[in-house]
Amino acid sequence: xxxxxxxxxxxxxxxxxxxxxxxxxxxxxxxxxxxxxxxxxxxxxxxxxxxxxxxxxxxxxxxxxxxxxxxxxxxxxxxxxxxxxxxxxxxxxxxxxxxxxxxxxxxxxxxxxxxxxxxxxxxxxxxxxxxxxxxxxxxxxxxxxxxxxxxxxxxxxxxxxxxxxxxxxxxxxxxxxxxxxxxxxxxxxxxxxxxxxxxxxxxxxxxxxxxxxxxxxxxxxxxxxxxxxxxxxxxxxxxxxxxxxxxxxxxxxxxxxxxxxxxxxxxxxxxxxxxxxxxxxxxxxxxxxxxxxxxxxxxxxxxxxxxxxxxxxxxxxxxxxxxxxxxxxxxx
Length: 332
Ligand code: TYM
Known about the structure:
By secondary structure, this protein is mostly helical. The chain folds into 2 domains: about 5-180 and about 295-325, HUPs (Rossmann fold); about 185-295, Tyrosyl-Transfer RNA Synthetase (Orthogonal Bundle), CATH 1.10.240.10. The chain has 12 helices and 5 strands. It has a 3-stranded parallel beta sheet with strand order 1-2-3. A two-stranded parallel sheet has the order 4-5. Helix 3 packs parallel to helix 12 (about 295-325), helix 6 packs across helix 7 (about 155-170) and helix 9 crosses helix 11 (about 270-295). Belongs to the class-I aminoacyl-tRNA synthetase family.
């Protein structure tokens, strides 16, 4: 059976980008078609400036939102990365397979290190080695497929390279995984700056729809979305990124093609009103389920405990095999 692994970083409140680009596929399709593991990758959240109390809150909220989005612990595993030691154990080995140059070429490293330096923060070494941990996340489970938004495709490509290199040098150990991107909304853009990805760690929040925003806050952010000086509605992603982003969000909510949707509008005001309504309706059940789950923290804890136990059982033999293959003697 196909195995799927994917993860989400608790570095900020989850966004519509996370939902449309990843979570929704996991809940609606992936968990039902494969043996799936979904992880709140809390160790990754330590790669940038962080506050321990906030990280604890966001990790719990992240796990709760995965369940609220529809992940069913009866059919898939949901857990926290730091509860499964094998992630860190294999990450070090991946650092010994990857090169410094490969890590420095990663777009996210370049962008985030520039941002950290611009705000006067030092760049954590773990930000550079991040893709080694991400490769370990995927390889320890022998995942065939990794459903992610477009921004993570480069990291999954690197994971493939590292798996192939390890297998070639030390003998076949890892499944070589592939990224699976959504057909629409693979890259939801910021409503205030439609040339930038809608990202949960961005400081300016007016262009970001958070999954737990109040409905009227979401609607206001969408009504104020930056478009352009033209009054009509056409789908031209290169020339008109703001309008295209709204059409793509509506397309993801309705299942209709963005270009066909554009034909139905004379002006962007009506488009924005429909996008606002569609997004609010799309997220309503998730928000209701989130409130219910918050009232039952013991349930979420139980799901995470069982998810981690199952994850460990899969990961352990793979990491042990990788340690042996690379020349580390097993304990007597
Ligand atoms: P993260 O936490 O940034 O995002 C989680 C998922 O949401 C997708 N996503 C988006 N999709 C469309 N439009 C957007 N604006 C948008 N923003 C985020 C991401 O592509 C991702 O699928 N490095 C990963 C976490 C990770 C991981 C892994 C993923 C760590 N180890 C192993 C898969 C497998 C990350 O930072 O995702």
